[in-house]
Each structure stands twice: as C-alpha cells, then as structure tokens.
Fold:
Amino acid sequence: MPDSPTMVRRRRASAKADVRALLRSSTQPFFVSLAGLWRSEIIEGHWAVGSQLPTIDELAEQYCVARVTVRQAIGVLAQDRLVERIQGKGTFVASSIRRRKIVRLESSWQSFMQMLDGNLPEQLRVDPDCQAAPLGDGDGSAAPSYRYMRRLHYSGGEPYCVIDLYLDNTCYAMAPDRFDSEMVIPLLGRLLPRRLHKMSQSFRIRTADMEQARLLRLPLGAPIGEVRRVISDRKGRVVYLGTGYYRGDSVVFDTTLEVPR
Structure:
C-alpha cells in the first residue's frame, strides 16, 4: 500500500531537519560546509564534468539553507575553478576538472609498493639524530638512533599525505641522498630485501589540524585517515616507523580476508 501524502510530507520534513542538524553540527559556516560537500561530489565524479548544477532555489530547498548561503558556497567552488557560471544559463561543473588520484592502502607488500610507485616526497622538517622513536608495545626493539623526517607526499602533482617518519640511521647511511629525495619504504625494500621481516599497519579516522589542513589543502577539521606503519627486520629491530595523515577523499583501504573452511 503506497504511503499517504501526509506520511510523505512528514518524511521529507524529517529528512530536511536531519540535513540542517548535520550542517549545524559543523564548526564551520554553513556555506563552507556546503562547498566542501559539493567539492567532494565534483572531485569524485558524482557531478559529471559539464553537467548543470540544480538551481539556487532547488539547492536551498534540498539542503535547507538560505539562498544566500547557496550563492556563497557556489562562489567558493567558482573561486576554486570547480564550477563555471554562465550568464542566463546557470552554473556548470568546470570542464577542466582534474580527478584526484585514489591512493589504495593495500594489505599486500607488492600491491603497496606498486601504489607508491611514482609518488614524490617534499621534505618539511628533519632531525638527523633522534634518540627515541615513539614505539609502542609489541612494535619491536629500538635502533640506537633514528633520522626523523616530516614530509609531504604528492601523487599526480597533488598533495595527499603528511607523514612523520623515523628511519634507522644505519639504514639511512646506506643511501643518504636517495633517502632524502625518494619514497622511503620502496627504497628500503630495494636496499634490504632479505633483512626486512614484516610491516604492520593500523588505520583510524582523525580530523585535520591547522598544519595538516594547510598542507593537504583541506578545511580545518576535515576528515583525514591516520595510518601508522612499523617495519621490523629479522632480528626484531624497528628500522622504520611512520604515521601518515591522508586526505579522506583520496584514500581507500583495501584488504582481503580468507574465509576458513
């Protein structure tokens, strides 16, 4: 039996209230939250290149905000060159959009190496002789000293990860120039293929702080993925510890679990 008009109206009213409550829960102005939401729709391809956006009245109705708020949000997208406003016709998704590359955090070593292939680091801070890395219980034994590096990782010219890493100085001494300019984990894999034993990684959701938001070109407080990786050698010594903070709109965590028989 179809729903009555009254039930349909109540459902729509409830959905609108939910949308408005979610917007109000953000610490950002309404128009900034909307612009971030629509930016994701465009970057991820849900709003196709060249397609026309709904009218201001339609968007205001759908998202339960004032028309001026919609105009402000569209203004942010236009400033970022994600949309084009054509007089007398409407607003369209820009034709020059570059789709953000998806970074897949694979569960296998080989797939993970392939994902990092072609990525580039930018050095932000260095401590050449760090005596203590933030190891946890079960990580393994510490090396005598580590080289600490804070880096910004790029893929396809776009920043996708801020990372704090600690590299065993005995490993660093094997190829200092290369470790300073290349991705550390693939280089470790090439230089020490028989010495490395395992890599463990954990993942959780965080929000971007001021520096992470600035470096990753995100709004303050935007969702980011925190990935902690520990690589140990066959003697149980931790040769690498890294905590990376990834853009939430560019990372997919893939894993496969075998079903026991």
Remarks:
- The longest strand covers residues 196-207.
- The radius of gyration is 23 Å.
- The chain has two domains: 5-93, 103-253.
